[in-house]
Design a protein that fits this description.
alpha/beta, 310 residues, rod-shaped, 5-stranded mixed sheet, D-Maltodextrin-Binding Protein, domain 2, 9 helices
Length: 310
């Protein structure tokens, strides 16, 4: 049996009441026992006292009258009675807890499905009638021209300008420098595998402007002393390569380059720059032969120019 907290309180109160009743009964029994002992002792003394009084006083003395000696009879001693003190505790009903089994739903019984209230579709407006698409007659279909398919044209890449490793500039001069430029171009292409472009200008001014602005890289057509004014006007933008590559009684042909391009050759193609500094066509008769024939006939000079120890 399981006791709830309330039932446990009731049991505790009843136990406390029973304990107090037992204690009270024990105390009352002890008090009564002590009183009886005192009464027994007083009875012996009182008997002895009465016997002594009867021997002294005459028999005709009555209680409440004076004796011959003038002393009144002593009043009898009062009898003390003790009343037991009893505490009455009303009985409290004991409430017992009863186990009540909680009914469980059977596991096999399916839960009822929720019932959905039927929904009524709201009233709609007057339906809009859509006319059917018109149908074409066979004659109209025959007269319809089928659309022509458009063929996407592939974009043709624009050819880009070839990237040249070196651009040689030349112009019309009183001394022929065009054939020297052609021989140099052939050596650079065959021996150094460079992509070379030869650029022709109408005037020396155009040639030196292109050289200073970086539109051309090197020229073998600097004629001294005729072109000294061009050199002074563009000083710092163009640089001389070597000393001279041809000379006559009243002229010297020198090689000049764009300043930035010469620095690039020094850093990336040192042997090419070394070859250009060694080239010397003096007294080699370059104007009467085709460039490749001249190269084949001057193998010893060519080996000296191409000897690079860098």
């Amino acid at each position: 049996m399981k006791f709830s907290p309330e039932n446990r309180l009731y049991v505790l109160i009843i136990s406390l009441g029973l304990f107090l009743v037992i204690v009270t009964v024990v105390l009352q029994a002890a008090v009564i026992s002590s009183r009886q002992d005192q009464l027994g002792d007083e009875g012996i003394l009182a008997t002895f006292r009465r016997q002594l009084a009867s021997a002294i006083e005459p028999d005709n003395n009555t209680p409440g009258t004076l004796s011959q000696s003038g002393v009144a009879d002593a009043a009898p001693a009062p009898t003390v009675t003790s009343t037991p003190f009893i505490i009455v505790i009303p009985a409290t009903p004991i409430v017992t807890a009863t186990e009540t089994a909680i009914p469980l739903l059977p596991t096999d019984t399916p839960l009822p499905a929720p019932t959905l209230a039927p929904t009524t579709a709201p009233a709609t407006d007057t339906p809009t009638l859509v006319p059917a698409p018109p149908t074409n007659t066979p004659s109209e279909i025959a007269n319809t021209v089928a659309p022509t398919s458009t063929v996407a044209l592939e974009a043709t890449p624009v050819p880009t300008a070839p990237q040249f490793d070196i651009r040689l500039a030349t112009a019309s001069r009183r001394v022929d420098c065009a054939n020297m430029t052609a021989i140099t171009e052939r050596i650079l292409s065959n021996r150094f595998q460079m992509n070379v472009q030869v650029m022709f200008f109408d005037t020396p001014t155009q040639m030196f402007d292109a050289l200073a602005e970086g539109e051309a890289d090197i020229t073998l057509c600097y004629l001294d002393p005729d072109d000294r004014s061009f050199m002074r006007d563009r000083l710092g933008l163009i640089r001389q390569i070597g000393v001279q590559h041809d000379a006559g009684e009243d002229y010297k042909l020198q090689m000049w380059a764009n300043g930035a391009y010469k620095a690039q050759l020094r850093d990336t193609r040192a042997c090419v720059l070394d070859f250009l500094e060694k080239v010397d066509f003096t007294d080699l008769n370059t104007g009467s032969q085709e460039p490749q024939s001249w190269i084949d006939g001057h193998a010893s000079e060519l080996s000296t120019w191409l000897n690079c120890s860098l």
